[in-house]
Amino acid sequence: MAYAVPTNDEVRTLFKARDEVIDLPLKVCLLTGMRSGEAIGLLREDLVSKGNLGRFVWVRPNSLRELKTDAAERLVPLHPELEGLLRELPSEGPLFPDLSVNVVTKRFADLRKRLKLDRPGLVFHSTRKWFGV
User: Fold this and answer.
1) Dihedrals φ, ψ of 27, to 5°?
2) In Å, how far are 1, 48, 88 from 51, measured between CA atoms?
3) Which of 52, 56, 76, 127 has the lowest tally of Cβ within 10 angstroms?
4) Is the pTM of the predicted complex or chain greater than 0.85?
5) Is 45 exposed, middle or buried (0-12, 13-18, 19+ CB in 10 A)?
């Protein structure tokens, strides 16, 4: 399947929607390029400070998830927009304890339909493609 790259207008529409279930994981994936499983499997201790370089998300295997490949382990700069939003999540352990990849991807499909963003190839995994544009 060829994934569609969300347009900037589609991303703005998704941001404005503020879906009560997937708003934050969606923003994490859009602003970091992380896969849904990587984002949903984030632990508080995966957010690390690198001194004057800023804060990063350490994408690595943990108790909630494995990575797709060994090369998938990486440090991803934490977008300033996410700083404040992530502070509101649990102070230890899983950041999204009530979510699964299945819930996120199905909710995204419903959100796309609700927002009339239903075009071929536009799926939750597409958020990775927008990050690189």
Assistant:
1) -65, -40
2) 41, 9, 22
3) 52
4) yes
5) exposed
Domain span at 85: 8-42+80-131
Q: Going residue by residue through the chain (133 aa), what tens digit of pLDDT does each one get?
A: 688 999 999 999 999 999 999 999 999 999 999 999 999 999 999 999 999 999 999 999 888 888 877 778 999 999 999 988 998 899 999 999 999 999 999 999 999 999 999 889 999 999 988 876 5
For the chain, what is the domain count? 1
| 23 occurs within a structural domain | yes
